[in-house]
Specification:
Length: 231
């Protein structure tokens, strides 16, 4: 068993494992217990009382975090020539079509989000095995398949993220960086949680949100009180 350092003991002592904190308290505390010497990612994990194996209980959506993600999101716009200037002006990092389809077929996936047009989706079908497992396949439900390419690129660059409940019933999402103020972290967390409540499936019975935890890279997790978001 790995030895717990003095610093780790001090950090763990700051978190009351018998207490569920408010979003504001948890956001401040997670900053206090982050001790790594880089700008750590702050993540939230929400356990939902749903069965993701049932299509009518799959929870998936998008949310624009009011304070962004703190991450420089690399966007690939797979568009026809008439949309290239629009995508470039909106801030897409890579713009084109056939040359990038060829690169992806060869295994290139050095992007965070792919945005495309309905007319191009047919060409992406054969690349599902490459893009699917990496969560890069564009989807109309997340706004990444659209004719308004400029808006889609701009939204992603400004903090729009998509999320999906995993097979264990948990939604994982990055809501900022440890360099964010506690207020900004709390604002992003509240926006995501409010969106999740709105997406509660009609077939979900009982308490919808079972638990909420927030943590940063290598920090202990902090439990958030679910009462406000019980659903």
């Amino acid at each position: 068993m790995a030895k717990v350092t003095k610093k780790q003991k001090e950090v763990r002592a700051k978190v009351d494992k018998n207490k569920a904190y408010s979003v504001d308290e948890a956001s401040a505390l997670v900053k206090e217990i982050t001790t790594v010497n880089f700008d750590a990612s702050v993540d939230i994990a929400v356990r939902l009382n749903v069965d993701p194996r049932k299509a009518n209980q799959m929870v998936r959506g998008v949310v624009t975090l009011p304070h962004g993600t703190g991450k420089d999101v690399k966007v690939l716009a797979l568009v026809t020539p008439d949309k290239e200037a629009e995508a470039t002006e909106a801030g897409a990092d890579f713009v084109g079509l056939d040359e990038y389809l060829t690169k992806i077929k060869g295994g290139w996936t050095d992007v965070d989000v792919i945005i495309t047009m309905p007319s191009v989706m047919g060409k992406l079908g054969p690349l599902g095995r490459v893009l699917g497992p990496r969560g890069l396949m564009p989807n109309p439900k997340t706004g990444t398949v659209t004719m308004d390419v400029a808006k889609a690129v701009s939204d992603v660059k400004s903090g729009k993220i998509d999320f999906k409940v995993d097979k264990t019933g948990i939604v994982h999402a990055a809501i900022g960086k440890s360099s964010f103020s506690a207020d900004k972290l709390a604002g992003n967390a509240k926006e995501l949680l409010t969106t999740l409540v709105k997406l509660k499936p009609q077939t979900a019975k009982g308490i919808y949100i079972k638990s909420i935890y927030i943590s940063s890279t290598m920090s202990p997790s902090v439990e958030i009180d679910t009462k406000t978001y019980a659903g």
